[in-house]
Design goal:
The chain has 100 residues and is mainly alpha-helical. 81% of the residues lie in helices and 0% in strands. The two termini are 26 Å apart.
Length: 100
């Protein structure tokens, strides 16, 4: 059977990446408009810096998720190909058996 290259991705790191959004969610400071208005300049700068760093983390997580999704699509294509090969082989084998 011909084949597609097998991914060398570590499944553990994929699973860790899968749960990354929850960690990001926990880092978001949910400030009301009132709370934002009450911040002094230094506090506002700290929140802005944290949000900037969080945006970087989100961008990295999105990139990783996109890679994992792409790898999953490749694996899906591999499995569909292998299924088609086996089904076609079974059809040919059934004909041989029927023709005895």
């Amino acid at each position: 059977m011909g084949g597609f290259p097998v991914s060398k991705t570590n499944m553990t790191s994929e699973m860790a990446s899968f749960f990354m959004p929850m960690e990001i969610k926990d880092k978001i400071q949910k400030l009301t408009p009132q709370e934002i208005q009450e911040l002094d300049v230094a506090a506002a700068e700290r929140v802005l810096l944290n949000n900037s760093n969080l945006l970087i983390d989100i961008g990295n997580a999105l990139f990783e998720a996109s890679q994992i999704a792409g790898e999953a699509k490749i694996k899906e294509a591999q499995l569909k190909y292998y299924k088609d090969v086996v089904v076609e082989q079974n059809r040919a084998l059934s004909k041989v058996i029927q023709n005895g």
